[in-house]
What we know:
By secondary structure, the chain is an alpha+beta fold. The chain has one domain. Helix content is 53%, strand content 14%. Strands 1-3-2 form a three-stranded mixed beta sheet, with helices on one face. The radius of gyration is 20 Å and the shape is elongated.
Amino acid sequence: xxxxxxxxxxxxxxxxxxxxxxxxxxxxxxxxxxxxxxxxxxxxxxxxxxxxxxxxxxxxxxxxxxxxxxxxxxxxxxxxxxxxxxxxxxxxxxxxxxxxxxxxxxxxxxxxxxxx
Length: 116
C-alpha cells in the first residue's frame, strides 16, 4: 500500500509540473488580437490607465506585456497617436504615449491602457 501511495503522489506532482509548463507556454505572446484596430477606433470615455509594475508578475497580462515585441508596442502607440481625441484624453491624464506598452478591451467596451 505504501508503494502505491508514493507512486500516486509522484504521478500527481508530475502532472502539476507539466500543467504549469503548458500554461506558461500558452500565455506567451498572447498579445490581444486586433488591439491596434480597437484603439484606433475607440470613441468611448471609459478607460483605465494602469502601471505594469502594479500587476502581479505571474499574471497573464504581465507575461504578454513583457514578451511583446518592439514592433507590437510601436504599432499600438501609433494607433493611439492616430486616434487624436483618445490621445488627448490620455495626455490630459499625464500619460506619455511612448510609455504605453499594452492595451486590453473589456467586454463592456472599455479599454485598459498599460504603461511603464
